[in-house]
Amino acid sequence: MPVPEKVRRPLTQMQELNLHVDHRAVDRAEFDQKIKEKERMYKRYREESEAARMVEEKKALKQLRRTMVSHARPLPKFDHPFCPQKSSKEITKPKSPYLRVLQRKERRKMISSLTAATSSPATLMR
Question: Which in 9, 16, 80, 110 has the greatest CB count within 10 A?
Fold first, then answer.
């Protein structure tokens, strides 16, 4: 039996591989660049705010030192002497507080009379 002849096909053409890793590397580089730019911006902002805060603290310290210096009190002006005028209000009438002294005395008498009346001979011997 005769062997059939092999059909000769042309060789396959190799295509260039396009891996996702290369595309991700480019994206990651862009992302890292943006992050570094943000960090530089925040660092600059922090330095500026720190410098402004230091300037404000120095100003406040100078102001505090200025105010802490004792100054002599100025003399009163005797050009127009003080002349008090009579008030138009009525005089305050004193009022005694209501302390209920009499009610307390009466209550004590009642309690003492009740205890004396209800006392038994055993309590009297104590």
Answer: 110
